[in-house]
Each structure stands twice: as structure tokens, then as C-alpha cells.
Amino acid sequence: MTVTGIITAIVIGAIIGALARLLLSGKQPIGILLTIIVGIVAALIGTAIARGVGVATTAGVDWIELVFQIGLAVIGVAAVAAFQRRGHRGVRR
Length: 93
Hints:
By secondary structure, this protein is mainly α. The protein is 75% helix and 0% strand. The longest helix is centred in the last third of the chain and has 27 residues, at 63-89.
């Protein structure tokens, strides 16, 4: 993977993760770095699913692939937020 590919993955991951956080209601107790990581993973898995289904090679914007990516990011952010909340519940302050 080239430097340009890595930077592109980070930017797309940040956008996908941010969109996922916007679509979820309430406050998610996760940081921006974790949001970007969830977004990158969701983008990669969403692309793989779109290719498997046969919709990743459409002309123009791949809207179906984007829906897969954002949907997976929403699930990922919700799962990480739930895990973070459960982990903080046992901490006494």
C-alpha cells in the first residue's frame, strides 16, 4: 500500500466514522481515533461485501457500496460505544 493509499484510507475512514456517529442518537463515549479506525474497517469490509454481491463496479458513485460501508460503521461505532460504556460502569470515581 502506498502513502497515498494510506492517507486516502484515513480520510475515508474519518468521513465514514463521522457519518456513523451522526446517524446514531445520543453521545458515543469513543474518541476520534477509534472512530477513524472503525470507519476504516467498515469501509474495507463494506467494499469487500459490495464486490462479493457484484455492485462495487458500477459507473459513477457506488451508492450501494457506500450504504454498506456506513451501515457497518454505524454497527461498529454502536458496538464500540456499548463496550466503552460497559467498561466504565465498573469504575468508581
